[in-house]
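Below is a filled-in request sheet from our internal design queue. Each sheet records the structural input a requester submitted and the sequence that came back. We keep these sheets so that new team members can see what a complete request looks like end to end.

REQUESTER: design group, bay 2
PRIORITY: normal
MODE: inverse folding
CHAIN LENGTH: 125
BACKBONE (tokenized):
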């Protein structure tokens, strides 16, 4: 009788396993690098960038359709910000900058008043 069992090739299996793991790691690394391009962008900025990259390859209409599917997923994962969130953050930053300028102006005015008082005291003495 002949042996009908399948022969095992451990090195072939190991090679295939390593090839699969390597390919998976490469794809994961590539996708992570692509996500970095979109971190912190607003929806409209991300959509424009996405369509600019894909538009010449697959056409503007298809690029827009793909962007419509991808942008919400990136937003859910926190990669991109909504335009409203960006506007609120910009307003907060502007308010912080204005407050800092006011504080600096008040400090400068206080210094000027102190200098004026010292000069007056010197003239009186």
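RETURNED SEQUENCE:
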């Amino acid at each position: 009788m002949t042996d009908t069992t399948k022969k095992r090739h451990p090195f072939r299996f190991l090679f295939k396993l390593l090839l699969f793991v390597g390919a998976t790691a490469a794809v994961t690394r590539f996708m992570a690098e692509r996500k970095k391009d979109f971190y912190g962008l607003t929806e409209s900025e991300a959509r424009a960038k996405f369509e600019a990259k894909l538009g010449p390859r697959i056409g503007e209409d298809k690029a827009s359709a793909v962007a419509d599917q991808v942008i919400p997923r990136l937003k859910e994962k926190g990669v991109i910000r909504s335009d409203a969130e960006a506007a609120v953050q910009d307003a907060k930053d502007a308010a912080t900058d204005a407050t800092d300028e006011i504080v600096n102006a008040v400090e400068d005015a206080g210094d000027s008043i102190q200098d004026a008082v010292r000069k007056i005291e010197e003239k009186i003495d």
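SHEET NOTES:
- The chain has a mean pLDDT of 79.
- Helices lie at 10-36, 43-58, 60-76, 83-124.
FILED BY: M.R.
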